């Protein structure tokens, strides 16, 4: 699915976020920034330990914040670590929303044009995929009102069900704007 939100093209992608050649991929992080399993584990495994070392050097951060690192051996240029929850804690809609806003502001600060988001805060974070998708789209919608350098956002689902949640959130977002 592709939709335009002002100057920003929003796309969905079914697959592995670590395969994307974008300016930045987002890590669904905890606020201590150590990279265990899930998206973080896949990024560290494929991109290398350097990503975690760079993230840890900037942490800990508060849930709802984000930091940027290199992408090691990945095709992407950077990894933006969005802290949707504390270690061992639960994510909230508001923390995910705030982390997306921080990520997009960081991307603009570094003049990045393309960014890919996974489902932040779902899985071990405790949010449903639907809640995560809604929070992410709300953050993107707010960014689109006064956009910076980001012009293309890819929402990545590792499963069809996750992609479908992103598609529904995009459609809901479009309906509320008309």
Descriptive overview:
The protein has one domain: Leucine Aminopeptidase, subunit E, domain 1, CATH 3.40.220.10. It is 39% helix and 23% strand. The protein has 5 helices and 7 strands; from the N terminus they run βββααββαβαβα. The protein has helices at 38-47, 49-56, 93-109, 129-145, 160-177, and strands at 2-5, 8-14, 24-30, 66-70, 78-85, 114-117, 152-157. The protein has a 7-stranded mixed sheet with strand order 1-2-7-6-3-5-4, with helices on both faces. α1 packs across α2. The longest helix has 18 residues, at 160-177. The radius of gyration is 14 Å and the shape is globular. The model has no long low-confidence stretch (mean pLDDT 93).
Task: Record keyword descriptors for this entry.
globular; 39% helix; alpha/beta; 7-stranded mixed β-sheet; Leucine Aminopeptidase, subunit E, domain 1; single chain; 178 residues
């Amino acid at each position: 699915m592709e939709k335009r939100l002002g100057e920003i093209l929003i796309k969905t992608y079914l697959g592995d976020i670590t395969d994307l050649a974008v300016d930045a991929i987002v890590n669904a992080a905890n606020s201590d920034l150590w990279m265990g399993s899930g998206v973080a584990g896949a990024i560290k495994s494929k991109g290398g330990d350097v990503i975690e070392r760079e993230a840890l050097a900037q942490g800990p951060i508060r849930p709802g914040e984000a930091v940027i690192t290199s992408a090691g051996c990945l095709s992407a240029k950077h990894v933006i670590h969005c802290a949707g929850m504390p270690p061992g804690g639960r994510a909230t809609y508001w923390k995910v929303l705030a982390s997306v806003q921080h990520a997009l502001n960081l991307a603009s600060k570094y003049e990045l044009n393309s960014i890919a988001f996974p489902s932040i805060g779902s899985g071990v974070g405790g949010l449903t995929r639907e809640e995560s998708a809604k929070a992410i789209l709300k953050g993107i919608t707010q960014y689109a009102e006064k956009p910076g350098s980001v012009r293309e956002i890819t929402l990545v689902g590792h499963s069809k069900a996750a992609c479908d949640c992103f598609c529904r959130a995009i459609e809901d977002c479009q309906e509320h704007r008309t």
